[in-house]
Amino acid sequence: MKAKQLAVAIALIGAGAALNVHAEEKVNKVERVEVTGSSIKRIQKEGAAPVETISRKQIEKIGATSVNELLKSVSSMDVADQGELTSNAPSGSGQSTAKMRGQSENDMLVLLNGRRLPVNPMADGSGAGAAVDLNMIPLGAIERIEILKDGGSAIYGADASAGVINFITKKNYQGAELRAKFGISSRGDADEKSAGISGGFGDFDEQGFNVLATLDVFKREPIYRKDRDQTKSADFRSQGGPDGRNAFSPYGNIVDTEGELTGKTLKPCPANLYNAELKQCGYDFNADILTANNGADRVSGMALGRLKITDDISAYAQVFYTESKDHFEAHPIPDFFDTKEDPVTKEVTTYAGRFMQIGPRISDRKASMSQLVTGLDGLTGGVDWRAAVGRGEAKSTLSDSNYMDKNKYNAAVQDGWIDATSLNNDPAKVASLRYSPVREASNILSFADLKLSGEMPLTLPGGAVAYAVGASYTREELKDTPDALSQLGQVKGSIKQAAVEASRNAKGVFLELSLPVVKDLEVQAAVRYDSYDTASSTSPKVAVRYQPIKELLFRTSYSQSFRMPTLKQLYGAKEEGAITIRGADQCAAIGKPADCSVTAKQVSGSNKDLQPEHGESFNLGVVADVGPFSGSLDWWTNKKDDQITQPQILDALLKGDVTVVGGQRFVSTPLANVAKLENEGIDLDVRFRFPTSFATFIFSDTNTYYLKSRQKQGSGEWEQLLDMNGAPIWRNTFRVEAEAGPWSSMLALRTTSGFKDTDTRATDKNPVPAGTRDVGSHTEADLSISYTGFKDFKIDGSIKNLMDQMPPFSEVNANNHSNMGFAELYNVRGRFFSVGAQYSFK
Q1: In this predicted structure, which of 43-47, 49-53, 436-440 has the lowest mean pLDDT?
Q2: Please, what's the largest Cα pairwise distance for the chain?
Q3: Region 47-60: what's the mean pLDDT?
Q4: Which pLDDT band, with edges at 50, 70 and 90, does 597 fall under?
Q5: Has residue 796 got a pLDDT over 90?
Q6: Whole-model pTM?
Q7: Cα–Cα distance for residue pair 666/655, rounded to 1 Å
Q8: C-alpha dihedral over 186, 188, 191, 195, to 10 degrees?
Q9: Per residue, what are the HEC states of 210-238?
Q10: Half-sphere exposure of residue 58, counting CA atoms within 13 Å on the CB side?
Q11: 3-class DSSP state for residue 687?
């Protein structure tokens, strides 16, 4: 039956649709896309699928020190800085992921030299964050990056529905290279120091072997919120926003029997902290401890070796290891406390306080990623073949301190000896409450694959028919073990965390046919069949490449995909997180006034009965190359059915999925295949080369414009995701490059459109209310320059955010998310200077 499904599903797709994963190796010809190192490829190298290439030269010009920063310059990438901004979020702090085409990070397949990498093992129960941590990619070893934009499910696997990012390392490298870089912000913080060494010996073509090794270290100091005018206070009234300072104050905000603030405090409140309208002495959590951009401490190493066994057979091995250490601090634990009973009146006063004496909550994260790949490839009887086995592992350990054993803490509160307005509680008793939870997690990805390619004894008017066929086997093993108290939800100041230990196997086969129908028209058939332990599916793809004249090419492609639920989504049990019920709709759903602010716990969780998500995508484009001009224009759309999602808080409240235990509200939002997703947009990529007598100038512009992005849950209305908080309609990067002898420079303008300052999704029946404030567009200018006039020596410098532009204010973010007053598309580093040097020798 499976063979029949595979045969029936074969469809036609344009030659070149596959991403070239080993440009210098003899691999499957139909998979190969030759690139020139430019973000706009020349017309002779264009295939039926849009592929953007970032060369090593471009990486150096951009001046990025991490993959996260590098991808911000790619307009088609939906990059957010959540992981770099957020402290003490177990699944996300310190991590960086990428999204594209309006889909999630789970839909983006990340490869290193064409091989899958293991995903973050601490993804939360919703599936968010179950993607490769891009901060673990050893950027110093990367020769180029290729981004396939129209999905690769038919070739790479079922989960490549949004696209593929392939990081390709240097090969057959001889010599050595030393590099160092230092950067600092114009405010004297956010220091970045990096250094690296690479060495290679042996000429594979002449000597039959080559070995390459690299080592890179990177260290970045954090930016504290208190050190930026925009984030130094949670009181955003001066920026037109709310006073977001917290009511859980060390001065003790007294509450009545209904839990409402009375406007009185146990200890005198400093005038600058008191807000009469809110009836509270506010705790300014932005004024101390919290970071606006996390620090980082990373080291990575890689070794690649290749040996010629015979003229037609070679062996290779690749190993890399990256380790990252991160330190996060959050404020001491807030809670409601009771004073000791008054001996005369017998009265007890309840107050909202913060147990400052316990100290700031500290999290130290140690993460690593490693991979070993070995294989053989060769040419036998006119058939190119490649076989490989490999194993990768991502590990994370989160060590916390200054948390408390909830049972001991609750007993202490009931005994009444804790005075949260004092730093003079009995030190021994305070120490007895402290608890240091440790969470350990790992994700292991083992694989084996075989690929064959060649030409069939069949010729069409345009040439010989080529084929490729392959098979793969993968095994994923996830183990995530929070400590025992965290699993029980008994750690005060933290969330309930679920343990999971699960594994699954996957088998896949694919077939491709390249059909040169006539000289100028190529079509290609490709289909992949993936079988998992609990589900299976066939993913076809069809594309056409038509080039009527040398200077003009038309391309189109259609593909289907499916994505399995993550292991955490299937087997991760229940997890809890703190939320605040606020806003008129949510407040009305629980019978509270429109201006309510009610703390609650959101209970999310896995569902072993989840089914795969099914999707399809379509791309239609044109590419031109006329003299000094080259460019491409692509219209694309994608859809998803059975999307796994967590019901919205408001929907759960309206459905009555709320329980109250001991005065605490629990809102239940279990995962389900209840959503549909639709995205549509246009990519424009143009380049103009203008030589003069003193320099060659290159003008380029890339733009991604979204026409549609919407989601629908069940029988509900379509909800607009586009033009909402953090979802801009377009992104644009304009560059001017100049090259003159040993000098090279680039000026880049990166612009993101504005959006409505609301988290409430609009529908046809309920559009965005008139008068909703707009978050303005944001532009940053980057300038870089390099000089190679010294023998074997290169010097470069850059100024990021040349005009020192700060992000536009967002009231939604001031109330929620990171509470810093700007969308997490940006950061507040400001103007940043860097200088680097590179020395190469044989």
Answers
A1: 43-47
A2: 104
A3: 84
A4: confident
A5: yes
A6: 0.87
A7: 13
A8: 70
A9: EEEEEEEEEEECCEEHHHCCCCCCCECHH
A10: 23
A11: strand
